[in-house]
């Protein structure tokens, strides 16, 4: 009987500790997992990349790479969850000095990384049983995507470009979420054999890769004026199959932030249908 009472007391104490958590989620790939496991009631604020994932009454802070210590501390969180991209370091140091826990969650680009991230967040939020179900769904979704690709005889070549005003265009090479999404969607990333991570390269080098399709984030696509704007900005791309056909596809930018996530898998599934209708 004493053991039962002790076990019940410990369970209630643990449950109350999770109920008292006040989490700031700094990254859409983290916020989507918190929501998917039903722990959104523990969230008191999110960063700008997560604004579409929470209700209007949840405060939205700055971009996860440029957070303000004063804004974070003022919300009296018990902990802040973010990826390796979260910062700056000076902000994180000030937050730690205020007695707030900082949890750095992996931002890897593989399915294995995503499954590990689910486990990490489930332990922090007390949602281990929900994590089991979520991981089953992820594995089933990946299996479905791969099954769809079995009928693809000639994979198309898809190049991801990121364009920011005043800076050279970058491409997504190997070990990037963009590359994983491209491969899951049944295509080939011609940059993966030559480049690691996201790197700026010349337009001439892009032309040599001869992509069939160019993939842009929704932000880039809208800011440059769609396919015509891309060719106006980078006319040499007209010498590629993608440029000649104005074959440009758009990916939701949140699917590329903080590592491979649930949104990344959904976009891979959607793009598979776009690439092979």
UniProtKB/TrEMBL annotation:
InterPro entries: ABC_Transporter_SBP, ABC_transptr_periplasmic_BD. Residues 22-277 form the Fe/B12 periplasmic-binding domain. Residues 1-19 form the signal peptide. The keyword Protein biosynthesis does not apply. Keywords: Receptor, Signal. The keyword Signal applies. This is Hemin receptor. It comes from Photobacterium jeanii.
């Amino acid at each position: 009987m004493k053991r039962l009472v002790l076990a019940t007391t410990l369970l209630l104490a643990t449950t109350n500790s999770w109920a008292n958590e006040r989490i700031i989620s700094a990254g859409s790939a983290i916020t989507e997992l918190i929501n998917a496991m039903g722990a959104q009631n523990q969230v008191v604020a999110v960063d700008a990349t997560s604004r579409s994932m929470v209700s209007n009454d949840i405060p939205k802070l700055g971009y996860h790479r440029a957070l303000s210590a004063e804004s974070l501390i003022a919300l009296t969180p018990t902990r802040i969850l973010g990826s390796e991209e979260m910062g700056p370091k000076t902000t994180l140091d000030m937050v730690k000095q205020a007695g707030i826990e900082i949890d750095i969650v992996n931002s890897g680009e593989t399915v294995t990384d995503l499954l590990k991230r689910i486990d990490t967040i489930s332990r922090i939020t007390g949602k281990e049983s929900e994590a089991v179900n979520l991981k089953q769904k992820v594995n089933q979704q990946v299996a479905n995507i791969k099954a769809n690709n079995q009928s693809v005889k000639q994979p198309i070549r898809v190049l991801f470009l990121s364009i920011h005003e005043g800076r050279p265009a970058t491409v997504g090479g190997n070990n990037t979420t963009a590359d994983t999404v491209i491969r899951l969607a049944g295509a080939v990333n011609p940059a993966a054999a030559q480049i690691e991570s996201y790197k700026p390269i010349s337009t001439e080098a892009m032309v040599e890769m001869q992509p069939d399709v160019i993939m842009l984030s929704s932000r880039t696509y809208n800011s440059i004026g769609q396919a015509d704007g891309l060719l106006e900005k980078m006319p040499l791309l007209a010498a590629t199959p993608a440029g000649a056909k104005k074959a440009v596809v758009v990916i939701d930018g949140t699917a590329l932030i903080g590592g491979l996530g649930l949104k990344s898998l959904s976009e891979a599934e959607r793009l598979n249908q776009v690439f092979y209708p």
